[in-house]
Protein backbone atom coordinates (compact mmCIF):
# COMPACT_ATOMS: atom_id res chain seq x y z
CA UNK A 1 0.00 0.00 0.00
CA UNK A 2 1.09 3.51 -0.67
CA UNK A 3 2.10 5.81 2.16
CA UNK A 4 -0.76 8.25 1.50
CA UNK A 5 -3.20 5.34 1.68
CA UNK A 6 -1.84 4.29 5.05
CA UNK A 7 -2.06 7.84 6.32
CA UNK A 8 -5.74 7.93 5.42
CA UNK A 9 -6.23 4.76 7.42
CA UNK A 10 -4.80 6.37 10.52
CA UNK A 11 -7.49 9.05 10.65
CA UNK A 12 -10.01 8.62 13.46
CA UNK A 13 -12.86 10.79 12.23
CA UNK A 14 -15.67 8.66 13.67
CA UNK A 15 -17.50 8.85 10.35
CA UNK A 16 -19.80 6.18 11.74
CA UNK A 17 -21.30 7.40 15.01
CA UNK A 18 -20.71 5.16 18.01
CA UNK A 19 -24.42 4.71 18.73
CA UNK A 20 -25.07 3.63 15.12
CA UNK A 21 -22.23 1.12 14.92
CA UNK A 22 -24.11 -1.90 16.39
CA UNK A 23 -27.06 -1.44 13.99
CA UNK A 24 -24.73 -0.91 11.03
CA UNK A 25 -22.61 -3.99 11.77
CA UNK A 26 -25.69 -6.11 12.47
CA UNK A 27 -27.17 -5.22 9.08
CA UNK A 28 -23.78 -5.76 7.42
CA UNK A 29 -23.54 -9.25 8.94
CA UNK A 30 -27.08 -10.06 7.74
CA UNK A 31 -26.33 -8.93 4.17
CA UNK A 32 -23.03 -10.83 4.00
CA UNK A 33 -24.77 -13.92 5.37
CA UNK A 34 -27.38 -13.60 2.60
CA UNK A 35 -24.59 -13.73 0.02
CA UNK A 36 -24.19 -10.04 -0.85
CA UNK A 37 -20.70 -8.84 -1.68
CA UNK A 38 -18.92 -6.35 0.56
CA UNK A 39 -19.35 -3.61 -2.05
CA UNK A 40 -23.07 -4.25 -2.50
CA UNK A 41 -23.59 -4.41 1.26
CA UNK A 42 -21.97 -1.03 1.78
CA UNK A 43 -23.93 0.46 -1.13
CA UNK A 44 -27.16 -0.56 0.58
CA UNK A 45 -26.15 0.61 4.06
CA UNK A 46 -24.28 3.87 3.47
CA UNK A 47 -27.37 6.01 2.61
CA UNK A 48 -29.00 5.06 5.92
CA UNK A 49 -26.07 5.62 8.29
CA UNK A 50 -23.99 8.52 6.92
CA UNK A 51 -24.80 12.18 6.42
CA UNK A 52 -22.45 12.72 3.47
CA UNK A 53 -23.49 9.53 1.73
CA UNK A 54 -22.15 10.40 -1.75
CA UNK A 55 -18.69 11.23 -0.46
CA UNK A 56 -18.55 8.19 1.81
CA UNK A 57 -19.78 5.90 -0.97
CA UNK A 58 -17.05 7.16 -3.33
CA UNK A 59 -14.39 6.60 -0.68
CA UNK A 60 -15.66 3.10 0.09
CA UNK A 61 -15.61 2.18 -3.62
CA UNK A 62 -12.11 3.61 -3.96
CA UNK A 63 -10.76 1.81 -0.91
CA UNK A 64 -12.31 -1.53 -1.87
CA UNK A 65 -10.92 -1.19 -5.41
CA UNK A 66 -7.46 -0.76 -3.87
CA UNK A 67 -7.88 -4.02 -1.97
CA UNK A 68 -8.78 -2.69 1.47
CA UNK A 69 -10.00 -5.39 3.86
CA UNK A 70 -13.13 -5.07 5.98
CA UNK A 71 -11.13 -4.47 9.16
CA UNK A 72 -9.19 -1.65 7.45
CA UNK A 73 -12.38 -0.14 6.08
CA UNK A 74 -14.10 -0.19 9.48
CA UNK A 75 -10.97 1.32 10.98
CA UNK A 76 -11.31 4.21 8.52
CA UNK A 77 -14.97 4.63 9.48
CA UNK A 78 -14.06 4.92 13.16
CA UNK A 79 -14.78 1.53 14.72
CA UNK A 80 -12.70 1.01 17.87
CA UNK A 81 -9.52 -1.08 17.70
CA UNK A 82 -10.76 -3.45 20.41
CA UNK A 83 -13.37 -4.76 17.94
CA UNK A 84 -11.24 -4.59 14.80
CA UNK A 85 -8.84 -7.29 15.95
CA UNK A 86 -11.65 -9.87 16.01
CA UNK A 87 -12.62 -8.92 12.45
CA UNK A 88 -8.98 -9.05 11.37
CA UNK A 89 -8.63 -12.55 12.78
CA UNK A 90 -12.00 -13.63 11.36
CA UNK A 91 -10.87 -12.56 7.88
CA UNK A 92 -8.04 -15.06 8.17
CA UNK A 93 -10.27 -18.05 8.91
CA UNK A 94 -13.44 -17.09 7.02
CA UNK A 95 -15.71 -16.39 10.01
CA UNK A 96 -16.36 -12.70 9.34
CA UNK A 97 -20.15 -12.90 9.75
CA UNK A 98 -19.82 -14.70 13.07
CA UNK A 99 -17.28 -12.12 14.25
CA UNK A 100 -19.56 -9.23 13.26
CA UNK A 101 -22.46 -10.72 15.23
CA UNK A 102 -20.23 -11.22 18.27
CA UNK A 103 -18.95 -7.63 18.03
CA UNK A 104 -22.52 -6.32 17.90
CA UNK A 105 -23.23 -8.16 21.16
CA UNK A 106 -20.08 -6.70 22.74
CA UNK A 107 -20.99 -3.18 21.61
CA UNK A 108 -24.52 -3.48 22.98
CA UNK A 109 -23.17 -4.83 26.26
CA UNK A 110 -20.66 -1.98 26.49
CA UNK A 111 -23.37 0.60 25.77
CA UNK A 112 -25.63 -0.97 28.42
CA UNK A 113 -22.80 -0.76 30.97
CA UNK A 114 -22.28 2.91 30.11
CA UNK A 115 -26.00 3.62 30.44
CA UNK A 116 -26.05 1.84 33.79
CA UNK A 117 -23.05 3.86 34.95
CA UNK A 118 -24.73 7.12 33.90
CA UNK A 119 -27.89 6.16 35.78
CA UNK A 120 -25.91 5.31 38.90
CA UNK A 121 -23.91 8.53 38.82
CA UNK A 122 -26.48 11.05 37.55
CA UNK A 123 -28.63 11.31 40.71
CA UNK A 124 -25.72 11.58 43.18
CA UNK A 125 -24.07 14.07 40.82
CA UNK A 126 -27.24 16.18 40.71
CA UNK A 127 -27.38 16.17 44.52
CA UNK A 128 -23.71 17.11 44.73
CA UNK A 129 -24.19 20.05 42.34
CA UNK A 130 -27.26 21.16 44.33
CA UNK A 131 -25.20 21.00 47.54
CA UNK A 132 -22.43 23.09 45.98
CA UNK A 133 -25.00 25.77 45.13
CA UNK A 134 -26.44 25.60 48.64
CA UNK A 135 -23.00 25.91 50.21
CA UNK A 136 -22.17 28.91 48.02
CA UNK A 137 -25.38 30.62 49.15
CA UNK A 138 -24.58 29.95 52.79
CA UNK A 139 -21.01 31.19 52.38
CA UNK A 140 -22.12 34.30 50.49
CA UNK A 141 -25.13 35.46 52.53
CA UNK A 142 -25.60 33.53 55.78
CA UNK A 143 -22.09 33.16 57.20
CA UNK A 144 -20.88 36.78 56.65
CA UNK A 145 -23.91 38.20 58.48
CA UNK A 146 -23.55 35.70 61.29
CA UNK A 147 -19.81 36.41 61.49
CA UNK A 148 -20.35 40.14 61.74
CA UNK A 149 -22.92 39.74 64.53
CA UNK A 150 -20.75 37.39 66.56
CA UNK A 151 -17.59 39.39 66.04
CA UNK A 152 -19.20 42.55 67.35
CA UNK A 153 -20.42 40.78 70.47
CA UNK A 154 -17.70 38.27 71.35
CA UNK A 155 -14.36 37.81 69.62
CA UNK A 156 -13.68 34.49 71.39
CA UNK A 157 -16.07 32.64 69.07
CA UNK A 158 -13.92 33.08 65.95
CA UNK A 159 -12.76 29.45 66.19
CA UNK A 160 -16.32 28.22 65.70
CA UNK A 161 -16.75 30.54 62.71
CA UNK A 162 -13.50 29.26 61.22
CA UNK A 163 -14.71 25.67 61.59
CA UNK A 164 -17.99 26.61 59.92
CA UNK A 165 -16.09 28.18 57.02
CA UNK A 166 -13.98 25.04 56.61
CA UNK A 167 -17.04 22.77 56.66
CA UNK A 168 -18.80 24.95 54.08
CA UNK A 169 -15.77 24.49 51.81
CA UNK A 170 -16.01 20.69 51.93
CA UNK A 171 -17.24 20.42 48.31
CA UNK A 172 -14.38 22.65 47.19
CA UNK A 173 -11.91 20.41 49.01
CA UNK A 174 -13.40 17.27 47.44
CA UNK A 175 -13.34 18.84 43.98
CA UNK A 176 -9.74 19.90 44.52
CA UNK A 177 -8.76 16.38 45.61
CA UNK A 178 -10.52 14.97 42.52
CA UNK A 179 -8.68 17.36 40.22
CA UNK A 180 -5.33 16.49 41.81
CA UNK A 181 -6.13 12.77 41.51
CA UNK A 182 -7.08 13.20 37.83
CA UNK A 183 -3.90 15.16 37.04
CA UNK A 184 -1.70 12.63 38.85
CA UNK A 185 -3.47 9.72 37.10
CA UNK A 186 -3.01 11.39 33.72
CA UNK A 187 0.67 11.93 34.48
CA UNK A 188 1.14 8.29 35.53
CA UNK A 189 -0.59 6.91 32.41
CA UNK A 190 1.35 9.31 30.18
CA UNK A 191 4.58 8.13 31.82
CA UNK A 192 3.63 4.45 31.44
CA UNK A 193 2.81 4.85 27.74
CA UNK A 194 6.45 5.74 27.08
CA UNK A 195 7.65 2.50 28.65
CA UNK A 196 8.43 -0.70 26.76
CA UNK A 197 5.28 -2.82 26.47
CA UNK A 198 6.37 -5.52 28.93
CA UNK A 199 7.39 -3.04 31.64
CA UNK A 200 4.25 -1.05 30.91
CA UNK A 201 2.05 -4.09 31.58
CA UNK A 202 3.82 -5.02 34.81
CA UNK A 203 3.45 -1.46 36.10
CA UNK A 204 -0.23 -1.39 35.13
CA UNK A 205 -0.77 -4.64 37.05
CA UNK A 206 0.47 -2.95 40.23
CA UNK A 207 -2.30 -0.35 40.10
CA UNK A 208 -5.18 -1.40 42.42
CA UNK A 209 -8.39 -2.46 40.64
CA UNK A 210 -7.11 -1.48 37.18
CA UNK A 211 -4.36 -4.11 37.17
CA UNK A 212 -6.68 -7.04 37.80
CA UNK A 213 -9.22 -5.87 35.23
CA UNK A 214 -6.52 -5.35 32.59
CA UNK A 215 -5.04 -8.82 33.13
CA UNK A 216 -8.46 -10.48 32.87
CA UNK A 217 -9.29 -8.52 29.71
CA UNK A 218 -5.94 -9.28 28.08
CA UNK A 219 -6.20 -13.00 28.92
CA UNK A 220 -9.74 -13.09 27.52
CA UNK A 221 -8.64 -11.51 24.23
CA UNK A 222 -5.56 -13.71 23.77
CA UNK A 223 -7.47 -16.90 24.63
CA UNK A 224 -10.37 -16.07 22.31
CA UNK A 225 -8.29 -15.13 19.28
CA UNK A 226 -5.91 -18.11 19.61
CA UNK A 227 -8.85 -20.44 20.16
CA UNK A 228 -10.76 -19.05 17.15
CA UNK A 229 -7.82 -19.51 14.80
CA UNK A 230 -7.04 -22.99 16.09
CA UNK A 231 -10.68 -23.96 15.55
CA UNK A 232 -10.29 -22.58 12.03
CA UNK A 233 -7.64 -25.25 11.36
CA UNK A 234 -4.62 -22.96 11.74
CA UNK A 235 -1.47 -24.33 13.37
CA UNK A 236 -0.32 -22.80 16.64
CA UNK A 237 2.70 -21.25 14.89
CA UNK A 238 0.65 -19.56 12.17
CA UNK A 239 -1.95 -18.50 14.74
CA UNK A 240 0.61 -16.72 16.90
CA UNK A 241 2.27 -15.24 13.80
CA UNK A 242 -1.05 -13.70 12.71
CA UNK A 243 -1.75 -12.26 16.16
CA UNK A 244 1.80 -10.96 16.56
CA UNK A 245 1.49 -9.02 13.32
CA UNK A 246 -2.05 -7.64 13.68
CA UNK A 247 -2.01 -3.82 14.10
CA UNK A 248 -5.07 -3.29 16.27
CA UNK A 249 -4.14 -4.56 19.76
CA UNK A 250 -0.49 -4.04 20.64
CA UNK A 251 -0.75 -5.83 24.02
CA UNK A 252 -2.14 -8.95 22.33
CA UNK A 253 0.51 -8.67 19.61
CA UNK A 254 3.25 -8.38 22.23
CA UNK A 255 2.14 -11.50 24.12
CA UNK A 256 1.61 -13.46 20.90
CA UNK A 257 5.15 -12.54 19.87
CA UNK A 258 6.55 -13.79 23.19
CA UNK A 259 4.66 -17.08 22.92
CA UNK A 260 5.71 -17.49 19.29
CA UNK A 261 9.37 -17.02 20.18
CA UNK A 262 9.21 -19.79 22.78
CA UNK A 263 7.40 -22.19 20.44
CA UNK A 264 9.91 -21.46 17.68
CA UNK A 265 12.58 -22.75 20.07
CA UNK A 266 10.72 -26.04 20.47
CA UNK A 267 8.68 -25.34 23.61
CA UNK A 268 5.03 -26.34 23.94
CA UNK A 269 2.38 -23.66 24.30
CA UNK A 270 1.81 -24.64 27.93
CA UNK A 271 5.53 -24.23 28.67
CA UNK A 272 5.51 -20.84 26.92
CA UNK A 273 2.47 -19.72 28.91
CA UNK A 274 4.00 -20.90 32.18
CA UNK A 275 6.87 -18.40 31.91
CA UNK A 276 4.67 -15.57 30.64
CA UNK A 277 4.15 -13.06 33.50
CA UNK A 278 1.37 -11.08 31.79
CA UNK A 279 -1.45 -13.62 31.38
CA UNK A 280 -3.81 -14.82 34.09
CA UNK A 281 -2.75 -17.95 36.02
CA UNK A 282 -5.83 -19.81 34.74
CA UNK A 283 -4.40 -19.66 31.21
CA UNK A 284 -1.81 -22.36 31.90
CA UNK A 285 -4.26 -24.93 33.30
CA UNK A 286 -6.61 -24.57 30.32
CA UNK A 287 -3.76 -24.82 27.81
CA UNK A 288 -2.24 -27.86 29.55
CA UNK A 289 -5.62 -29.62 29.62
CA UNK A 290 -6.26 -28.72 25.99
CA UNK A 291 -2.93 -30.11 24.86
CA UNK A 292 -3.60 -33.39 26.66
CA UNK A 293 -7.13 -33.76 25.30
CA UNK A 294 -6.27 -32.56 21.79
CA UNK A 295 -8.94 -29.85 22.00
CA UNK A 296 -6.78 -26.81 22.64
CA UNK A 297 -8.93 -24.45 20.58
CA UNK A 298 -12.13 -25.34 22.43
CA UNK A 299 -10.39 -25.11 25.80
CA UNK A 300 -9.16 -21.60 25.03
CA UNK A 301 -12.62 -20.51 23.89
CA UNK A 302 -13.97 -21.83 27.20
CA UNK A 303 -11.28 -19.87 29.02
CA UNK A 304 -12.34 -16.76 27.12
CA UNK A 305 -15.95 -17.26 28.24
CA UNK A 306 -14.80 -17.82 31.81
CA UNK A 307 -12.75 -14.60 31.73
CA UNK A 308 -15.66 -12.73 30.17
CA UNK A 309 -17.96 -13.82 33.02
CA UNK A 310 -15.29 -12.90 35.53
CA UNK A 311 -14.94 -9.46 33.94
CA UNK A 312 -18.72 -8.91 33.96
CA UNK A 313 -18.95 -9.88 37.63
CA UNK A 314 -16.10 -7.57 38.54
CA UNK A 315 -17.60 -4.62 36.63
CA UNK A 316 -20.99 -5.26 38.23
CA UNK A 317 -19.32 -5.36 41.65
CA UNK A 318 -17.58 -2.02 41.03
CA UNK A 319 -20.83 -0.43 39.86
CA UNK A 320 -22.64 -1.63 42.97
CA UNK A 321 -19.91 -0.14 45.17
CA UNK A 322 -19.81 3.17 43.31
CA UNK A 323 -23.27 4.51 44.19
CA UNK A 324 -22.99 3.91 47.99
CA UNK A 325 -19.57 5.60 47.94
CA UNK A 326 -21.01 8.64 46.13
CA UNK A 327 -23.94 8.85 48.53
CA UNK A 328 -21.53 8.55 51.49
CA UNK A 329 -19.57 11.54 50.17
CA UNK A 330 -22.81 13.50 49.79
CA UNK A 331 -23.86 12.51 53.32
CA UNK A 332 -20.56 13.85 54.68
CA UNK A 333 -21.15 17.13 52.84
CA UNK A 334 -24.70 17.38 54.23
CA UNK A 335 -23.44 16.67 57.74
CA UNK A 336 -20.77 19.32 57.28
CA UNK A 337 -23.39 21.82 56.10
CA UNK A 338 -25.61 21.04 59.11
CA UNK A 339 -22.77 21.48 61.59
CA UNK A 340 -21.52 24.65 59.89
CA UNK A 341 -25.00 26.21 60.14
CA UNK A 342 -25.88 25.01 63.63
CA UNK A 343 -22.59 26.01 65.29
CA UNK A 344 -23.04 29.77 64.75
CA UNK A 345 -26.71 29.51 65.72
CA UNK A 346 -25.86 27.83 69.01
CA UNK A 347 -23.26 30.49 69.68
CA UNK A 348 -25.81 33.19 68.96
CA UNK A 349 -28.23 31.58 71.42
CA UNK A 350 -25.52 31.55 74.10
CA UNK A 351 -24.76 35.21 73.45
CA UNK A 352 -28.41 36.11 73.78
From TrEMBL:
**InterPro entries this protein is in?**
GspF/PilC, T2SS_GspF_dom, T2SS_GspF_sf, T4P_ComGB
Which keywords belong to this entry?
Cell membrane, Membrane, Transmembrane, Transmembrane helix
Q: Where are the transmembrane segments?
A: 120-142, 173-192, 325-346
One Gene Ontology cellular component: plasma membrane
Q: How does it sit in the membrane?
A: Multi-pass membrane protein
Which protein is depicted?
Answer: Competence protein ComGB
Q: Which organism is it from?
A: Kurthia zopfii
Predominant localisation class: membrane
**Which cellular compartments is it found in?**
Cell membrane
Q: Does the keyword DNA-binding apply?
A: no
Which spans of this chain does the record mark as coiled coil? Answer: none
Give me the gene this protein comes from: gspF
Which protein family is it in?
Answer: Belongs to the GSP F family.
What's one Pfam family the UniProt record gives for this protein? T2SSF
Domain Type II secretion system protein GspF intervals: 24-144, 226-344
Amino acid sequence: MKKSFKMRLQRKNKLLKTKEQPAFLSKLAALLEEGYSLTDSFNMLVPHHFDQEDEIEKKVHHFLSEGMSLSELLNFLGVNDQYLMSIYVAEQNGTTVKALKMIVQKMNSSMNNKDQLIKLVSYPLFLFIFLIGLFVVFRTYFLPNMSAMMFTRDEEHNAQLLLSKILLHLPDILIGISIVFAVVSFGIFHYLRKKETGKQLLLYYKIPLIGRVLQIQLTKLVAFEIGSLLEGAFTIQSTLHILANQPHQKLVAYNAKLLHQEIAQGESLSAAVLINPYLHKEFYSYVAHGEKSGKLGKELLLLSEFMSDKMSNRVEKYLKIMQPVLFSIIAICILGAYISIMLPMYEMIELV
